[in-house]
Amino acid sequence: MRPVQSSAMTKVPCSACGALILPTTAESTGGVCMACKQGIRKNLEEARAFYKRMEAYDPVRALWRSLVDRSSDDPGLIGWSEPERTYFSVNLLEGEVYNGGFDQYFTNSSADSYRYAVAGLAEIGAVRSLGIVREAADLLFGKDGPPATKEGRWRIMRSSARRLSEVVSRHRRAGRLEQLDQAFWDDADRIGERLTDHADRHGLLKPFERPRD
């Protein structure tokens, strides 16, 4: 009777990750394990790397959390420095537009700081993004621009003559607002890098930097 060969002896390494797989699997997949073939391993590794980065202390993230906490007590950003207003309001604008487009931004309270956001884009030199934001505001609210409060914008949205949903629908059919969303998402100005440089230049990160070992 022939001895049973160890399964470990019969396996071959995946050509992508090195995991041991059966020769029959390698033959059917072109030499890779099923996790690599289906993209599962890549997604898992990326997820692990992402959460590992999230666990690591980051002064930029610490600054942002601090500003979010302060905005709860001072939503008008009255007691803030100009560099802080720029950093916070432009980040709010970027996050809202990335999440749901310009119509979401102007619907939410984040657009209460619109005037700081457009001034901030100019301050950090994001001129292409600034032009996109202003055109979107013109499309939705006309040349007078959006009201400074969510309640003011909602009054326009709910008015029978100029309901925001109708305006958004009309311009989305024309395709222009979608084009502006996409143009902003393309991030030609690399806003995130400019904001980090801005925070560093004005000393916003200093209180959150930890001494190196």
Bin the strand percentage.
Answer: under 5%
Unreliable spans are: 1-9
Number of domains: 2
Overall mean pLDDT score?
81
Envelope shape:
extended
List keywords for this structure.
mainly alpha; 2% strand; 213 residues; single chain; two-stranded antiparallel ribbon; 2 strands
What does the model show?
By secondary structure, the chain is an all-alpha fold. The chain folds into 2 domains: 46 residues, no CATH class; 147 residues, no CATH class. Helix content is 65%, strand content 2%. A two-stranded antiparallel sheet has the order 1-2. The protein is extended.
SSE diagram, text form:
Layout: H1 7-10, E1 12-13, E2 20-21, H2 23-29, H3 34-37, H4 40-55, H5 59-73, H6 82-107, H7 114-123, H8 127-141, H9 150-158, H10 164-174, H11 176-185, H12 191-201
Antiparallel strand pairs: 1-2
Brief account:
By secondary structure, this protein is mainly alpha-helical.
